[in-house]
Amino acid sequence: MRLSSFALFFLTAGVYMSSECFHTEIIGGREVQPHSRPFMASIQYRGSHICGGVLIHPQWVLTAAHCYNWFPRGHSPTVVLGAHSLSKNEPTKQTFEIKKFIPFSRSPSGYSSHDIMLIKLHTAAELNKHVKLLQLRSKNYLRDGTKCQVTGWGATNPDQLKSSDTLQEVTVSIISRKRCNSQSYYNRNPVITRDMICAGDAKGQKDSCQGDSGGPLVCKGVFHAIVSGGLKCGIANKPGIYTLLTKKYQSWIKSKLAPSRAK
User: Which residues are in the Peptidase S1 domain (predicted)?
Assistant: First the structure.
């Protein structure tokens, strides 16, 4: 299944795809200390969490490009910052309308090619201890087996695809591009390119899945990638696929953010 087309299966904010679809949720993780990940954004439609995101500038959130296709045309989602519980009326929350979406490519090719997008908030966020930025400083090289953390409000049970109310996190291991493309893994379907990276668990018990798209993969304190896709949830030889924050993407992000600094 193509990552660029699986959004067609998402009809409304309350309807979730089957576990056969590309995954974007936390499996085998645990709840984080409330507000300990102040860079996390919840992208919502009619009050329901759809995708994760990362605050990288007071007025900009980084997420996965395929998330855009999950929102009906003419109905703009909102971005919520400073949240831990999605249902509780937390005083730390800041909610924003969206000014514009800027995908890296408006006509992606391949399965999950260029699955990265910037969201400009209508107004700048107020930075405080509950709402902070996550800096882009990835050097791109990730050794096979490196332990990383992925964070999100995605479902915690692959058989019950329902978003978690509280923010969850799980530790996964980097899987080399060569191994992830091998016959016993994705068999080059999709092809894991230099702009992508795989991460998972040898037993398939720790993973990202539905609801976590656009959330961060942080390795040794460095923001390296965002959740993109993968087949099913928590399958050992079908690990999560992430968009790697390569120099190409970092340069593009800086070029888009530059004009906002002058305003």
Answer: 26-258
